[in-house]
Amino acid sequence: MTTTHQPPYPPPEPPRGHRSGDGSGHGSGAGHHHGPGAGAGHGHEAGGGHGRGHGHGSGGGHGHSHSHGPAAPVSKHLRKVIAAILIPFTAAVAVGLVVLWPGGAPPHQRSGVGFDRQTQQATVTKVVSVSCKSVNASGETPTGDTSSAEGSSAQQQAKGTCKKATIRVDTGKDKGRTFTEIVQPDQSRQLHEGEKVVAAYEPSAPKDLQYSVADVNRRFPMALLAGIFALAVVVVGRMRGLMALIALAVSFMVLTFFILPAILQGSDPLLVAVIGSSAIMLIALYMCHGLSARTSVAVLGTLLSLVLIGLLGSEFIGWAALTGNTDDNTGLIHGLYPSIDMSGLLLAGVIIGSLGVLDDVTVTQTSAVWELHEANPSMGWRGLYRAGIRIGRDHIASVVNTLVLAYAGAALPLLLLFSIAQSSVGTVANSELVAEEIVRTLVGSIGLVASVPVTTLLAALVVAADRPGPEQTAGPAGAAPAAARTGRGRRRKR
Predict the structure, then answer these.
(1) Model-level pTM?
(2) Helices 412-420 and 381-410, interaxial angle, to 10°?
(3) Are residues 366 and 451 in the same domain?
């Protein structure tokens, strides 16, 4: 316990944001005294935040400091440096949004193929069993090799029992109209009475063939699952979880109202993806984690990693001669909008797809370095970097494995098809359909791995270089700076 000479007026409260102390928590242990005499201050602290003591007595007093809350902000100088980088970047993103903002997706003549067709909601009102022979176009029993898939299916359609479903249109100008659908016995989707379905409409077809069942209506189970997800996020994350859901909704709006229409309008897919993903990054990170130097460092780490991903993706997509036109959906897009650069669209997908995982890694690494600094303020930037990178290595190992397994799970039917064909690994990897996903996964993983040392280094340099300004250490004339003392009365080492 140390004694201080009490000035003729009460000393001011230690400035909020500056903290000093020993141990895992740091706060100012200077007491806030009332009355003349000497006051001794010692601090008790839980967590990180601001410490304010209070003491009473005419002869002597001692104050207790209790600290809770977020980490102290960095000095004004570092805030100015970070702002000098992020403010122009944010302004550039805003200008890009204004310049590239589309007026909506350009109109086109519907092709009636895949998703590009008119649909209505409908309900199965009646299902009866009928002989397949009586309802199929040909009443004759087919002949041929029944060991093949086609021959076996033909035999089932000729001799099996089919279903004749009556479907009622529930929406659109033909609301209340009914049509029939024949369901073959080997069909993967069997219709049931009362089931909600999606009916495709083709106006140019004969009237009795204009409607057909395209899919099942899954709106209710999907909405219920989304509700359970939102509830779980809010219950566990509370206010942070709520802000994360709001940020997710804003990200979806940017994707729906800016990125997709701008690409369809003919803007460069890469430029649109960079502007759109930057906007999503700024909104999501600051909305979820607050406007602070810690979040700003995470933003800078994410930005540098995205730049690396863009450069690597552009180089290897061109080098591997990937066209981006590998399946029916991309072929339909290219047919409807020939001006769209499909390889640029592929690169845009790589950048946007990497953003979500990058946010997770950069925020985690920044928070880890900040907490290490709070636990040991005397640790230099090299020590902070070494400790932070050890945490990052564990994160890298788990996240990279997650990316590869996520692709393998999504592409399992395709990989199974290659296995059935007994194709070698080299043949499978060389096909454009698989090579495209390999490049996408590896480029994103390289950017992810690079984000750990980059973000850790940025965070270590920022917190280690932070020094309190004059306004944080200056006290009244003749009084020792209260904020510069620890809870045990020892001066903090710089």
Answers:
(1) 0.65
(2) 60
(3) yes
